[in-house]
Structure to design on (139 residues):
């Protein structure tokens, strides 16, 4: 699971079902590696400060702008909206909510799903911002 996708599972049931499904799909000895933002880092504070538009040039489209706004903070849930504006004026809004879980909470969910937690690392390109979980399905 990449891109902090573990945070889109808002309920305990959703996360539990997902981890159990991954466990069932892995061969014995198979690994699950994923990252999740550290709640104590409070990444949403940067998102609030970074609400200015950014732009990127997209081949065969032109310049597309992106604006991200935090819309609600009700920890452990944080909601935000991303608005993409295209050269022709078309706007697409994407609303998202993420759940910020602690390291201990995630480790407990992994064990409950049948995994062995081998390591919890710091994301090498984002030190102090994310956990990287390395878990294995027992052989």
């Amino acid at each position: 699971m990449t891109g902090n996708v573990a945070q889109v599972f808002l309920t305990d049931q959703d996360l539990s079902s997902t981890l159990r499904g991954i466990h069932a799909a892995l061969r014995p000895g198979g690994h699950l590696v994923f990252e999740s933002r550290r709640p104590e880092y409070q990444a949403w504070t940067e998102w609030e400060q970074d609400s200015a538009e950014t732009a990127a040039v997209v081949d065969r489209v032109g310049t597309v702008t992106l604006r991200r706004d935090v819309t609600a903070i009700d920890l452990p849930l944080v909601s935000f909206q991303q608005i993409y504006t295209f050269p022709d004026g078309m706007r697409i809004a994407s609303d998202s909510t993420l759940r910020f879980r602690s390291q201990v909470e995630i480790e407990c969910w992994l064990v409950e799903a049948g995994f062995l937690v081998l390591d919890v690392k710091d994301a090498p390109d984002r030190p102090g911002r994310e956990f990287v979980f390395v878990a294995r399905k027992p052989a």
Remarks:
- The first helix runs from residue 12 to 25.
- The first strand starts at residue 31 and ends at 37.
- The mean pLDDT is 95.
